[in-house]
Amino acid sequence: xxxxxxxxxxxxxxxxxxxxxxxxxxxxxxxxxxxxxxxxxxxxxxxxxxxxxxxxxxxxxxxxxxxxxxxxxxxxxxxxxxxxxxxxxxxxxxxxxxxxxxxxxxxxxxxxxxxxxxxxxxxxxxxxxxxxxxxxxxxxxxxxxxxxxxxxxxxxxxxxxxxxxxxxxxxxxxxxxxxxxxxxxxxxxxxxxxxxxxxxxxxxxxxxxxxxxxxxxxxxxxxxxxxxxxxxxxxxxxxxxxxxxxxxxxxxxx
Length: 254
What we know:
Blueprint: E1 2-8, E2 14-17, H1 26-35, E3 39-43, H2 65-75, E4 78-81, H3 91-99, E5 103-104, E6 108-112, E7 115-120, H4 123-132, H5 142-145, H6 158-161, E8 168-172, H7 177-182, E9 189-192, E10 201-202, E11 205-206, E12 208-209, E13 213-214, E14 221-223, E15 226-228, E16 247-253
Parallel strand pairs: 1-16, 2-3, 3-4, 4-5, 7-8, 8-9, 9-15
Antiparallel strand pairs: 2-16, 6-7, 10-11, 12-13, 14-15
């Protein structure tokens, strides 16, 4: 795992963490101890494919995710957004997350040290939350709620967010959302993950990313006002990450 540093016109030193997928986090904790960021942005996918039930909350069945979030909160104020792998979370799960000391932002925003921080929730998470309010307790597979053909993210609240008079930071797990939903929004900095660096990188370019396909546009680095993390784990089964180390991203003020 490597530490990647980007200089950006933003007044806080930010640590961007994405796609840890319920994996061990000792290296991350040591990095946070060394770097002492002003804030931590967890840009989605701290879970990995749990089946929902009506009994034990998902967060209480994880091996590392709760401890990871609690550890982040000990190092710096931590703001968390929901990625596609958080689709099954209930209201009780969300309260358990908040109890770790982090600030969970679910299609909402808050103010911190003079800047405004929002989080655009993955479309599948919002779709499943609506489904769960109904009476049907037969849970479809997660792909049903994460199909871009079926769902759109909830973006109406961004109109009020972008009107705030100050620097604005948006956690958005999906970098592919930028061009479709965010390009014309008055947002200073967008932090994303999801693409896992393209899984295999050839000649400095990722090979594949969900939601973007082969040779995706957004997998890593700075793209105008968006910074993308290559992620902190491998979830592609037998396909290794090649020429694509896991990374912690630090954004430091210019």
